[in-house]
Amino acid sequence: MYKLLRPTELATFVTKWTFEGSEDDVRDGFIHLSTEGQMSGTLEKHFSRDSNIFALDCSLLIGTAKLVWEPSRGGQLFPHLYRPLQMSDVRAIIPLPGKIWPVAI
């Protein structure tokens, strides 16, 4: 599962080691995440005008209590995180398209 970030959002995240969310996240009250299969639709819908997008591999969150699978676009179940995203939740930062940058904690 992944969180997609713009460069400014990523800069804030790596500086603070926590991410309160994008404007959409804050408005909706949770951090929007996507599965690998949902990423292309999310990129097209929300990031089509952006370049240098980064995907945060948040698979470490699977099975945590604050992660809820809820219907969204087209009735698909999307993972929603009901707390700020922490650097310890991130397995890797992946520039799209690009090489995986492992997170060293």
Secondary structure elements and their pairing?
Elements: E1 2-5, H1 7-16, E2 18-19, H2 23-28, E3 31-32, H3 39-46, E4 54-57, E5 67-71, E6 77-81, E7 85-86, E8 92-95, E9 101-102
Antiparallel strand pairs: 1-4, 2-7, 3-6, 4-8, 5-6, 8-9
Structural features, described:
It is a single chain. By secondary structure, this protein is α+β, with helices and mostly antiparallel strands. It has a single domain, classed as Protein of unknown function DUF952 (ADP-ribosylation fold, Alpha-Beta Barrel). Helices cover 23% and strands 29% of the residues. The chain is built from 3 helices and 9 strands. Strands 1-4-8-9 form a 4-stranded antiparallel beta sheet. A 3-stranded antiparallel beta sheet has the order 3-6-5. Strands 2-7 form a two-stranded antiparallel sheet. It is globular. The two termini are 19 Å apart. The mean pLDDT is 90.
Give a short overview:
This protein has 105 residues and is an alpha+beta fold. The chain has three helices and nine strands; from the N terminus they run E-H-E-H-E-H-E-E-E-E-E-E.
Key structural traits:
single chain, alpha+beta, ADP-ribosylation fold, four-stranded antiparallel β-sheet, three-stranded antiparallel β-sheet, globular, DUF952 domain-containing protein
